Every structure is written in C-alpha cells, then in structure tokens.
C-alpha cells in the first residue's frame, strides 16, 4: 500500500513538472505489479488503446500469473508464443548475449528461490543456490521463430524488460494517433513522446534512491525512454542485511556493489529497460567498459559514496535538483 501511495505521489510530481496549458487526458492503471500513470495531449482515445495494450502484455509476459504465456512456457517447457512474447524473449536473449549474461531471463528459478516472484521472501541456503546456478543459462533457451523450448528446470522471467517493451508498443500507438505529446510513467520506465502545446520538451524527474518520492534531478527530452533500476524498488531485510530484487546471474545472489540506481536513456524502450538492469549488475567498471564498447545509450549511475557517473550525452539534458550535491564523474 505504502509503495502504491508513493508511486502515485511520484507520478503526480512528474505530471506537475511537465506542466502545460492545454489539458491532457490522464489515467492511472495498476498492472505489471506497479502503478502506471499516463498523460496524453491531443487524442484522448489513445488512452483506451494503451490501457488495453498494458493488460494484454501483462497477461502474456508475467512470470507470476499462472495463466500467462510465459508461465505456460515455464510449466510445459515448450510453447508457441504470441508475436509480442516471441519478440520480447528473442530480443532479451540477444541482449543477454551482448551483456555477457549480466541480464539473463533464465535467472527465474533463483528469483523464485529468493521469493521475489511469489512474494514470500527468504534467504536460500548456499547449497540451494549452487544447485540452481546451472539452470541459469540463456543459451539453453531454443527459439525457432515463435516456437520455444526450455530444458528441464530452466524457466524465464521477463520482468527486467516488459515495461520497456510496453513503452515501445505504446509509442507505436501514439505515432499512429493524432496525439501531439505524451508522458507515460510505466512504473519507473518513462516514455516521452512529442512535445507540449508550446513546443517545449518534457522535464522528467529521476527518483532519489534514498527517498524515492523525491527527485535528485531532471531530464529534459522527448521521444526517448528513461528506465531506472534500483534496489530501492523492491527488497527485503533479514538479520540486518538488505536483499534486493536484482540478482547477479553469475553468483545467484542479489547485487551488492555500492550502486544505488542506474538510469538509462535510449531511443528504444526494451533496450533502455534491459540495460538499466544489466548495468546495475555489471557495476561501475563493467558499465564503463560496456559503454566504451557500444556507446548506444546514455546513463546516470548513482553510487553510495555520493558519486554520480554520467555519460556525455546526459550532461546536456540533465539538471540537478535543489539541495542535491554529488561528485560528478564521466562514465
Ligand atoms: P523494476 O522492475 O523494479 O523496474 P528492473 O527493470 O531492474 O526493475 O527489473 C528487475 C526485475 O528483473 C526483477 O524483479 C526480476 O524480475 C528481473 N531480474 C532480476 N535480476 C535480473 C537479471 N540479472 N537479469 C534479468 N532479469 C533480472
Ligand atoms: Mg530493467
């Protein structure tokens, strides 16, 4: 409940910040285990189309909902997927390869063991983690078009990328409509589209990981997706230790590397969402090496020692909020 209230507050702030003279059509939808708030200018009807898209993708991609396509694949170890589910899985496998497994959808059995998918949080024994690690292997997922098969014990979780893919599909709906601008906050993954009625860009707040209802800064942009991953989004504590919902697929344990949050800005939503999770797993050195190699995104990384790393492309569009101070370094 507390999380929902804070998400709604966050959403309200994003709206206020993107103020505009023409009144937008607005809607809040609860789906994908989060609260989504949308604001569209110039074509109210798109909200119905985007809302039904949200529910369709949620029902298809959820690893928790027993009736979803992904749950059926995980149960039966074979499935003929819908176009959406096949597109998401195949792109996620490509990115798993590209990120050297920092992003790996087959982390699912470990997500279950830690209770992050069902909600019954627990710390598995080291023996249990050792026994599950061999099941984490994206290359074991076989895809032939929409036909997918998984070896015994292997299962997939698309939670790291579903909202990003949703952003891409929502953008296509907006492009086909008369909407002049929109900001969709899809639960921490934000799509900016078009412009305000005065032609100016959107100003989107980036959550302060230590006080998630506040913003440590703002990004001014449009036609980009902004995806943030952080331990603060979901975690539990036991014996004074915090266990977060982003797992390192190479160890089977929650990431614990001094990063507080990673915000990725990219044209493509699925890529932005995937990378926010993957760079979080990689840590600063891994993220810097990945950026040097590919450089096809921008990002802001906050560390627990008060350092903020950012790529060149972000420095032009980012402004720090009043009262925040970080040691700023180039990634
Ligand atoms: P959020 O869902 O809070 O926006 P992310 O986009 O970072 O955050 O996605 C985290 C989700 O991704 C987890 O809840 C889990 O379902 C899944 N996940 C966790 N670790 C990994 C990983 N290393 N690779 C792929 N998926 C992961
Ligand atoms: Mg992500």
Q: What distinguishing features does this structure have?
A:
34% helix; alpha+beta; 9 helices; binds magnesium ion; 331 residues; binds adenosine-5'-diphosphate
Topology, please?
Blueprint (H helix, E strand, L loop, with lengths): L1 H16 L7 E7 L2 E8 L4 H16 L7 H8 L1 E3 L2 H16 L9 H6 L12 H7 L9 E3 L2 E3 L12 H14 L5 E5 L3 E6 L7 E7 L2 E11 L3 E6 L4 E4 L2 E4 L14 E8 L2 H26 L3 E6 L3 E4 L1 H4 L2 E3 L6 E4 L1
Parallel strand pairs: 15-17
Antiparallel strand pairs: 1-2, 2-6, 3-5, 4-5, 6-7, 7-10, 8-9, 9-16, 10-13, 11-12, 13-14, 14-15
Structural class computed from helices and strand pairing: alpha+beta
Inertia-based shape: globular
| Total count of strands | 17
Characterize the main sheet.
9 strands, mixed
Low-pLDDT residue spans: 1-5
Multimerization state: single chain
Cα gyration radius (Å): 19 Å
Lateral arrangement of strands in the main beta sheet = 1-2-6-7-10-13-14-15-17
Question: Which small-molecule ligands are present, each listed once?
Answer: adenosine-5'-diphosphate, magnesium ion
Helicity range of the residues? 25-40%
Average the pLDDT over all residues and give the rounded result.
Answer: 93
